[in-house]
Design goal:
The chain has three helices and five strands, in the order ααβββββα. The chain is an alpha+beta fold and 123 residues long. It has a five-stranded antiparallel β-sheet, covered by helices on one side.
């Protein structure tokens, strides 16, 4: 009981006017943080452009050029894996010979690649 009376008679610690110290490693909010907030999206966009968008556009351009240069007699592969020789070319479609008297019509956009013909390999 005497201990409690002793504590009650002690004066309280005076209030301090100092701000509490920041934890080590905590970043201060200042002019540098707004610059970082601006540069981060720019860096992400630059990364996406260099490694995703740009290569995809190059590939699309290459395929578009290949489709535009198709001619009768070219051996091609469709996106479904069908191999055939071009018999007729129309505006948006090609007719392929895929076997003995078997012709199928495909969209030009579904031609995935041209194959090297055996005639070209023999040269």
């Amino acid at each position: 009981m005497e201990f409690l009376r002793f504590l009650a008679q002690q004066p309280a610690a005076p209030p301090t006017t100092e701000a509490p110290a920041q934890a080590p490693g905590a970043a201060a909010a200042g002019p540098g943080s707004s610059l970082t907030m601006f540069l981060l999206p720019v860096a992400i966009f630059a990364f996406m452009w260099l490694f995703v968008i740009r290569p995809q556009r190059k590939e699309e351009k290459k395929k578009r050029e290949m489709v535009n240069t198709l001619k009768k007699g070219d051996e091609v592969v469709t996106t479904g894996g069908m191999i055939g020789t071009i018999a007729t070319i129309k505006d948006d479609t090609v007719i392929l010979n895929v076997g003995d008297k078997t012709r199928l019509e495909f969209m030009k956009s579904h031609i995935s690649q041209m194959r090297e013909t055996k005639k070209a390999e023999a040269k």
